[in-house]
User: What shape does this take?
Amino acid sequence: MSKTFKYSILMFAAGVCYGLNIPFVRIIHDNGFATAEIMVLQYIVGVTTLGIIVVLFFRRKISLKAVLRLLGVGVLAAGVSFSYYQALALLPSATAVTLLFQFVWMGVVWQVIRERKLPPLTTIISMFVIMAGTVLATGIVGNNAGELASLDPLGLFFGLLSAAFYTAFLIASGKAANELPAANRTLFTSLGSLIIALILCPTFFHETLAPNITNTGFILPGIALGIFGILLPVFLIASSSPHLPSGLATIMASSELPSGILCAMLFMGDVVSPLIVLGVVIILVGIVLSQSSELLSYLKNRRLNEKHEP
Assistant: This one.
């Protein structure tokens, strides 16, 4: 199995983790908490857990330049969370997710600009297949023109901004302090995000956390968000993005949408139409297509090895 395929699987898993966040975000929102409060809680959980892991197992000397670069990556991650959560508050969830998923083509376009050449044909085809599947999977097909015209312009802005931040985050994660273990990189990235979240919600500790320290509708989903929204996906992205082209990285991260829809269906009771199921299948086909050359190469090598075995 090639390294590219292995790292693609890690990026796919990171997208799945992000998709698992949707029910937890909805629970906290339904309990009356604001976007910035959700962000601070999840980053506190993530940074605390990562800090313990790094102190116990991954102590390293880190230059100030590396720390600053990783904090900058964390600022981009915080931008993703804030703008996406704001879009969810102002737009139908299907529209917000559709706008977020513009990161798929943005990542491919960035790769073209940076390398001054077209990516492999499978990457281009996968991009269009995934975008087509996204339109179906979010359920936006079927909305009439009047509903679409009435969408909040500020919500549309935040939705597109979340896609731009996500693209920049995936790209920057592959460039910052690659000489460090993924755990150390993830810690400082998450710390940068926490700093931004605290700036957005400076009264968190005495006005939000203290009165709600025993509120399970806030604390438990917050812990889950820290694990599935910070600890696991950021670690997986830090481990895989340095080894993948930006276009392929964004395509593999699109596993977030099927994961989120499945969680919303299983845990939140959302109704999933046949059209949405078709969209999810198309997205998965697009992801497999992006890895078709790697899969064929792996199967071919496996057959050759089996042939030569006594």
Notes: The mean pLDDT is 78.
